[in-house]
From TrEMBL:
<dbReference type="GO" id="GO:0003700">
    <property type="term" value="F:DNA-binding transcription factor activity"/>
</dbReference>
<protein>
    <submittedName>
        <fullName>ArsR family transcriptional regulator</fullName>
    </submittedName>
</protein>
<dbReference type="InterPro" id="IPR051081">
    <property type="entry name" value="HTH_MetalResp_TranReg"/>
</dbReference>
<dbReference type="InterPro" id="IPR036388">
    <property type="entry name" value="WH-like_DNA-bd_sf"/>
</dbReference>
<dbReference type="Pfam" id="PF01022">
    <property type="entry name" value="HTH_5"/>
</dbReference>
<keyword id="KW-0804">Transcription</keyword>
<dbReference type="GO" id="GO:0003677">
    <property type="term" value="F:DNA binding"/>
</dbReference>
<keyword id="KW-0238">DNA-binding</keyword>
<dbReference type="InterPro" id="IPR001845">
    <property type="entry name" value="HTH_ArsR_DNA-bd_dom"/>
</dbReference>
<dbReference type="InterPro" id="IPR036390">
    <property type="entry name" value="WH_DNA-bd_sf"/>
</dbReference>
<keyword id="KW-0805">Transcription regulation</keyword>
<feature type="domain" description="HTH arsR-type">
    <location>
        <begin position="16"/>
        <end position="111"/>
    </location>
</feature>
<dbReference type="InterPro" id="IPR011991">
    <property type="entry name" value="ArsR-like_HTH"/>
</dbReference>
Amino acid sequence: MAMNSMMDSAAEAGVNEAAALSAAACMFRSLGDPTRLAILRHLALGEHKVVELTAHLGLAQSTVSAHLACLRDCGLVTSRPQGRASMWSLATGAELLDVLAAAERLLATTGDAVALCPAYGEEASR
């Protein structure tokens, strides 16, 4: 239903439907990595430096920085300088949290189906 309303709104605004679908797919791909989701979840608690994220996630600084760059390029996070470091935060907190909450509700409804999906499930990524 929400995708239909998104497409209806796009059509009313004169937006190309194919472009709107492509943009939506790109956004979902940006959310399709467990590390990026973990970063977003942690940033939902408030601003953090890269060093804090690396300690929390147990990942290399270069890995966290690369994921933050992806999320920044997608417009999902932003940073501000603080001394020699940068403080990272959610760029669109309320909207992003709404999407993640909707995803959690959908996962609760579908159960293990997505994890077992032969095309996108856990076995497909191995």
